[in-house]
Design brief:
By secondary structure, this protein is α/β, with parallel strands linked by helices. It is 39% helix and 13% strand. Strand 8 and strand 9 form a beta hairpin.
Length: 299
């Protein structure tokens, strides 16, 4: 096990969505009323997090909040951060600007109704803010959110790797990447988390922390299911579920090897035991990012 010697606190996040909400199945209504294990999957996650004594951010779809209100309440009652993953899992680039603004408002209202607290964070389904970033970030801020975690700085992108505050005043917490031969590659979530060895993932996270940068680990609620759904076709089954059983083990391994907290706490927007410090976490994150050369942040 890699020994964490850094004072950097990373963020742990879970996207709460149905398995058939993914790009491969696009919310196919044929699956909508059967084979849903979402409440049980979330229960397993909550037990795991309680066992390892870590709090996380749950980015929850508005459709999930409406269908499983008790699950959302259970997440909030356990002391985890509830954030928005949008109204449905529809990619935002497929929405008009008006539709996107309504989606932001509706999902926020659905979560606030159940938890009694307006969510601070937003993450676009499948990180689908691909261009026109200034409009999307301004709209997220205008809707009442304090931070976003949608802008993946992958491949040859000039997007920043460190958390920063956008011109609109919205904080951005970019999904984590590592640099290889000048190309930025994902490693800390999704397919990459499922397929990459845990020691490789841990070493890349340690590298980020050595630069003073927090990582943001993300996984999906359906990755904690005990049985893969049937009738999906072999190709799609292999793409979505290959090595999925390793996710829970890797999350536990990383959580025991590094410091983790909800994204809102890491950004200093809310407080928790991992961030009991004199200088606010927000100031520490931003000051660290400001001290790093632009060449490092864009590597």
């Amino acid at each position: 096990m890699i020994k964490d010697t850094s004072s950097v606190v990373n963020a742990l996040s879970i996207d709460v969505e149905e398995w058939f909400d993914t790009v491969l199945f696009a919310g196919d209504p044929a699956f909508a009323d059967k084979q849903s294990g979402l409440p049980a999957d979330v229960s397993r996650i909550l037990v795991m997090l309680d066992t390892i004594a870590v709090k996380a951010t749950f980015f929850i779809l508005g459709s999930v909040a409406r269908k499983y209100p008790d699950t959302v309440k259970a997440i909030a009652s356990a002391g985890h951060e509830v954030a928005s993953h949008g109204g449905t899992h529809r990619s935002v680039f497929r929405m008009s600007q008006a539709e996107f603004k309504k989606d932001l408002a509706d999902s926020r209202a659905a979560l606030e109704k159940l938890t009694g607290k307006a969510p601070l964070g937003y993450r676009a389904p499948t990180f689908s803010i691909l261009k026109n970033e200034s409009f999307y970030l301004a709209a997220i801020k205008e809707a009442g959110y304090a931070y976003d975690s949608s802008l993946y700085p992958v491949f040859l992108s000039h997007r920043r790797r460190a958390p920063y505050t956008d011109a609109s005043g919205l904080m951005e917490f970019p999904p984590s990447v590592f640099s290889f031969a000048g190309v930025k590659l994902p490693f800390l979530g999704g397919t990459f988390l499922r397929l990459m060895p845990k020691n490789f993932i841990a070493s890349r996270l340690a590298g980020l922390n050595a630069l003073g940068l927090p990582g943001i680990l993300y996984c999906h609620s359906w990755e904690f299911g005990e049985i893969a759904p049937t009738g999906t076709g072999l190709t799609k089954q292999l793409i979505q579920y290959s090595n999925v059983a390793s996710v829970a083990k890797k999350v536990e391994y990383l959580a025991r090897s590094f410091k983790f907290a909800p994204a809102g706490e890491v950004l200093g927007l809310s407080r928790g035991p991992e961030l009991n410090m004199n200088l606010s976490a927000k100031d520490m994150v931003l000051q660290t990012a400001c001290r790093l050369p632009v060449s490092v942040l864009q590597q």
